[in-house]
Amino acid sequence: MKHYLSVNDIESLPQWVDEAIKLKKDPYQFEDLGKHKTICLLFFNNSLRTRLSTQKAAMYLGMEVMVMNFGNEGWALEYGDGTVMDQGTSEHIKEAAQVVSQYCDIVAIRAFAGLQDKAKDESEEVINGFAKYASIPVVNMESSVGHPLQALADAITLEENKLDKKPKVVLSWAPHPKALPHAVANSFVEMMKLQDAEFVITHPEGYELNPAITEGCTIEHDQDKALEDADFVYVKNWSNYTYYGQVLNKDTNWTMTEKKLGKAKFMHCLPVRRNMVVEDAVLDGNQSLVVEQSKNRIFSAQIVLKKILENLK
Ligand code: CP
């Protein structure tokens, strides 16, 4: 594997999850692998977990880490071919990606969807631009349409918490006051397609995710019915996909409650808005896995960086 851009770059999900769980038990076991190697983390958007967990993962592997808040501090980048750059952009992705490639051995990038222009977001101009013009491996720390490090952490969390039987996992939409991207839900769906599980997606009618991603999945618009006998409930808001980026529904009947959750374990990628997406009692109760999920972000990043470093040697 050269780049880690999507869940589809995982060569074997069960094997990677198994390796990540072994890394978690002894995280310094490959501390020489990244010696004299540098990772550069470029953030076009805010972060808590992704920033710190990816740094920690790199440190466990003995790497040097450079972090830049590109969105606030870098030059505004141009992505178009042949553009006359007489407007707001100052530097082309062609030069920026090549320059960054000389300062580090791996570059990891966070660049969210703008949610204004579906075609532009789906072209993934930032992460694909870096993958095209950089001469080093590129890692996706959440792009317009995917958050594969989160999905891998979620797979680790499911594995660590699953019972003996094939689990029922429900992805449930929840209300949110702001327009949020589809990336986390998309990658979770892609990851669940690789799992031996009963998987159900529930959301209000009209809130379908990209059908190319959910193809083959069970979709149930009755949330109560979807949640029946669930073992894991993964809650996430996303803005409307058809009326792209709009917030057409804030129905708090979809908020996850202790009663709806029943005996299931609760999952969310964080950050989460309390008593909007999920009520306090769920997050504060012992069925919540959200803090475990955030810990597993270290080991999802570590297994990805380990695979890339092994390929660099
Ligand atoms: N889950 C996640 O990606 O968290 P951050 O946005 O804080 O990095």
From TrEMBL:
Name the UniProt record assigns to this protein: N-succinylornithine carbamoyltransferase
Chain sites annotated for binding N(2)-succinyl-L-ornithine: 142, 176, 236, 273
Organism: Flagellimonas zhangzhouensis
Family, as annotated: Belongs to the aspartate/ornithine carbamoyltransferase superfamily. SOTCase family.
Superkingdom of the organism of origin: Bacteria
EC numbers, comma separated: 2.1.3.11
Pfam families cross-referenced by the UniProt entry: OTCace, OTCace_N
Family annotation (Gene3D superfamilies): Aspartate/ornithine carbamoyltransferase
Aspartate/ornithine carbamoyltransferase carbamoyl-P binding domain segment(s): 2-160
Keywords from the named record: Amino-acid biosynthesis, Arginine biosynthesis, Transferase
Pathway, per record: Amino-acid biosynthesis; L-arginine biosynthesis
Quaternary organization: Homotrimer.
GO BP of this protein: citrulline biosynthetic process; L-arginine biosynthetic process via ornithine
Function: Catalyzes the transfer of the carbamoyl group from carbamoyl phosphate to the delta-amino group of N(2)-succinyl-L-ornithine to produce N(2)-succinyl-L-citrulline. Is essential for arginine biosynthesis.
